[in-house]
Design brief:
Blueprint lengths: L23 H4 L2 H20 L10 H16 L6 H12 L9 E3 L8 E3 L5 E4 L6 E3 L1 H18 L6 H6 L9 E2 L12 E2 L1
Antiparallel strand pairs: 1-4, 2-3, 5-6
Length: about 190
């Protein structure tokens, strides 16, 4: 057997995969929902500030190229989904020219991997088997891609508060918005 970690039970709400349309996160008031989403972004920034294990991370370009090769492999003979091709093209066009420092990475950043209190505070972050070290942009990109993909799967309902919620945290360790009032994910500027 391999080593593993077991944590104590944490009381709270764990959103289901269909969180935009079912479960606690879909049912709470918009301010609690925004607090929960902002809490994940804030917790992610805290993970990125952790100093343990910062050496030995591969450069961002190597990691991104590896993920593009995986996308091509996973698509097989079919074309990759257009939104992923668009994301790849955007990432390639906007790669930072300066290398970013290595940070602790969560690896599977999504709302379904957090437990929330009734007030929307983050009680725990789960699912760490993809954790490692690298450029913090990788975690932020993973979060935004999975967030948008989940919203796209449930496009039949109005999700303005979900879209706004992801932009509440203007102090991510590697990004900022033009202003705290800007609720446009596309306006996020990465350094």
């Amino acid at each position: 057997g391999e080593p593993f970690v077991v944590m104590d039970r944490v009381a709270g709400h764990a959103p289901p995969r269909a969180w935009p349309v079912s479960g606690w996160l879909a049912e709470v008031a918009a301010p609690v929902r925004a607090r929960a989403i902002d809490g994940v972004a804030t917790a992610l920034a805290a993970v990125h500030r952790a100093t343990a294990g910062r050496s030995g991370a591969e450069p961002l370009g190597v990691t991104v190229d590896r993920w593009w090769a995986y996308l091509d492999w996973a698509a097989g003979a079919r074309p990759a989904p257009a939104f992923l091709v668009d994301a790849r093209d955007w990432c390639d066009a906007h790669r930072p020219s300066e290398p970013t420092g290595a940070s602790l990475l969560w690896g599977d950043v999504q709302l379904t991997n957090a437990i929330f209190t009734d007030a929307g505070d983050v009680a725990a972050l789960l699912d760490w088997e993809m954790a490692g070290t690298g450029a913090p942009e990788l975690d932020v990109g993973w979060f935004l891609a999975l967030y948008e993909m989940t919203l796209a799967q449930h496009a039949e309902i109005a999700l303005a508060s979900f879209k706004a919620g992801v932009c509440v945290s203007a102090n991510l360790s590697i990004g900022q918005f033009d202003s705290p009032a800007n609720n446009d994910v596309d306006q996020m500027k990465l350094h």
